Amino acid sequence: MLQAASRVVLDSHEIESLIKSEPSLCYRLLRYLNSSLFGFANEIHSVSHALAMLGVRETRRWVRLVAMLAAGQNRPSDLVLSALVRGRFCELLGPKIPHGDTDLFLMGIMSLMEAILEVEMARVVESVTLDRQCQAVLLGEPSQLRPVYELMLAQESGRWETVSELVTQLHLSESEVAEDYWQAMQWARNITGK
């Protein structure tokens, strides 16, 4: 599912087939779109209609979110919550910083996949299509995304001096970074019911 969602051109028929083959995914998708988050006038009753309503960007995001939750089913819930917070935090930073074509939400959630899947990061990165900068930062190699990644880690662990340095480097304000992190935590708690 993650591989299908990560392809350059999203094949909605392939995604639809994958979702239909797993009844719990069908249920989650329809429940997600019929929730008050969207407020559609009419209920959505089919997977194809749901995918059309979501659009390509949101379909990719939803698939990644569901895959993350599924991968973390037998793991400590704090690990999954942290991955979701990281993903959403990076996504909220996206409009404020240069990041090329990298999906910052994906970078954030992938940062904990090694622990969630109990597989080396090299194997995780190998199994999902990621752009070069995202691959590099996840593998600990030099990357233009390193300051964003380090900011995510510093904010999460409360290393405020490092946060301050990185915020300056990225031309952000500490208050907006703190607000983005708080929003990411609220969002992740809503998603996981924590």
Number of domains: 2
Secondary structure tally, helices: 12
- Main sheet properties: none
Strand content: under 5%
Number of strands: 0
Order of helices and strands: HHHHHHHHHHHH
| CA-based gyration radius | 17 Å
Estimated helix fraction? 55-70%
pLDDT averaged residue by residue: 83
- The span between the termini is 25 Å
Gross geometry: globular
Assign the structural class, choosing from mainly alpha, mainly beta, alpha/beta, alpha+beta, or little secondary structure: mainly alpha
Low-confidence stretches: none
Can you put this structure into words, describing what you see?
The chain has 194 residues and is mainly alpha-helical. The chain has 2 domains: 2-71, no CATH class; 77-192, no CATH class. Helices cover 69% and strands 0% of the residues. The radius of gyration is 17 Å and the shape is globular.
Provide tags for this entry:
194 residues; mainly alpha
Quick recap:
This protein is mainly alpha-helical.
List the helices and strands and how they pair.
Layout: H1 2-6, H2 12-20, H3 23-33, H4 47-71, H5 77-93, H6 104-110, H7 113-117, H8 121-127, H9 132-138, H10 146-157, H11 160-169, H12 174-192
Helix pairs in contact: 2-4, 3-4, 5-6, 5-10, 5-12, 10-11
